[in-house]
Specification:
The chain has a single domain, classed as 2-Layer Sandwich (Nucleotidyltransferase, domain 5). Helix content is about 25%, strand content about 20%. The chain is built from three helices and six strands; from the N terminus they run βββαβαβαβ. The chain has a six-stranded mixed sheet with strand order 3-2-1-4-5-6, with helices on both faces. Strand 2 and strand 3 form a beta hairpin. It is globular, with a radius of gyration of 12 Å.
Length: about 120
């Protein structure tokens, strides 16, 4: 299974970024092998559509799930339409997040857990 993890770097040792749409990178991890590929997230600096852009990267990479902290309404809709499930909140490194997922320690998001255009982090405090 491939999982996209919102991250602050491009490796499994990078810290998880709590923002899905505005994370600088998505690390795509194959849970069977722990092979990983870090991808730039063009949505990180976009004026609008950040979450949808991140969801498209995850879909294009073949991810069946994303691990993150918060997902806004447009990102959640884009993930749902692509049949990609969102899990979180995750902490620690990308590797830690995948291990938390595999151990059943992350909850599946049933709805967006961030307000629209939440990239300014006010909802994280």
């Amino acid at each position: 299974m491939k999982i996209a993890v919102s991250a602050q770097g491009k490796s499994v040792e990078a810290a998880v970024d709590p923002r899905f749409g505005r994370c600088p990178y998505l690390v795509i991890v194959d849970t069977a092998t722990m092979d990983a590929e870090g991808m730039d997230n063009p949505g990180a600096l976009a004026g609008t559509g950040a979450g949808v852009a991140a969801a498209q990267i995850a879909a294009d990479a073949g991810a069946e799930a994303v691990i993150t902290g918060v997902v806004g309404p447009h990102a959640f809709e884009a993930l749902s339409s692509g049949k990609i499930r969102a899990y979180g909140p995750a902490k620690g490194s990308v590797r830690d997040a995948v291990e938390q997922f595999q151990a059943g320690q992350l909850g599946e998001l049933q709805q967006p857990n961030a307000p629209l255009h939440a990239g300014d982090r006010r909802h994280l405090t």
